[in-house]
Amino acid sequence: MNSGEASLFEILEELAVSDFSGSSPCAVCRLQRRSVERGLKLLYYELINDMPTRMEWRKAGGFCPEHTRTAIQHGDPLGAAILSLDLVDIALQRITKVKKGLRKISISAKPAPCHICKLQQEAGKRYILALTQGLNEKQDAWQALEKSEHLLCIAHISALISLLSPQQADRVRMLAQKKITALQKELEEAVRKSDYRFLHEASGSERDAWLRAMQLLNQPHNHI
Ligand SMILES: [Zn+2]
Ligand SMILES: [Zn+2]
């Protein structure tokens, strides 16, 4: 099995998962998150003294704000201390260069993508390309996508549509529209039931629709 086939196998398995237990309902986002966790372990335990990795780390100025939280959650105290030592000089230089006036601070150049931004984008591309290949060659891939209980997030469904033939893209668009409309109905139902007149009604699948909607419909930066 080559790496493309292995990625397709993983994505087809992930599409069949209906209980995402607090993670994203999007199968590609979940696989991206796992790739990031593996990549962070590799950074802390194997690449910590790799010079090109450390140069890239200094250039990015550490992790971006979003991924600083990820790195803290999955962090290793020794690895984090070693990497942070690399940033001390950069931080000291930076504060010595600050000029008077608040505007000058806000006009700072956009930093290079952080190590986790890159891991996330590489993983997203890998799985979306594998799924595209699967949809081009295998009926199983269509069945997995159509049977999947949850939608891919907007960023990933858009990336997938952009790689397919017009006919395939229409098929995926229709599927996505159907799922977005169903989610919209659940959100409307959740809002309706929050009205005091309907509070006595038992809650159904709409109770966590807000959570799925936040994860599926938001389109973060640095996301393929
Ligand atoms: Zn996603
Ligand atoms: Zn980042």
Question: Which labels suit this protein?
Answer:
mainly alpha; 11 helices; 70% helix; binds zinc ion
What can you tell me about this protein's structure?
- With 224 residues, the chain is mainly α.
- It has one domain (3-217).
- It is 70% helix and 0% strand.
- The chain contains eleven helices and no strands.
- Helix 1 (3-15) crosses helix 2, helix 1 (3-15) runs parallel beside helix 8 (139-147) and helix 10 (166-193) runs antiparallel to helix 11.
- The chain is globular, with a radius of gyration of 21 Å.
- Residues 26, 28-29, 152-153, 155-156 line the site of one zinc ion.
Strand content: under 5%
**What general outline do the C-alpha atoms trace?**
globular
The biggest beta sheet is recorded as: none
> Total strand count, please?
0
- In N-to-C order, the SSE pattern is HHHHHHHHHHH
The value of Rg in angstroms is 21 Å
Which ions and ligands are bound to the chains? zinc ion
Kindly state the mean pLDDT as a whole number?
88
Which ranges are low-confidence, i.e. pLDDT below 50, for 5 or more consecutive residues? none
Q: Which percent bin holds the helix content?
A: 55-70%
Task: Give the domain tally.
Answer: 1
User: Can you count the helices?
Assistant: 11
Question: What separation lies between the terminal Cα atoms?
Answer: 25 Å
**Structural class of the secondary elements?**
mainly alpha
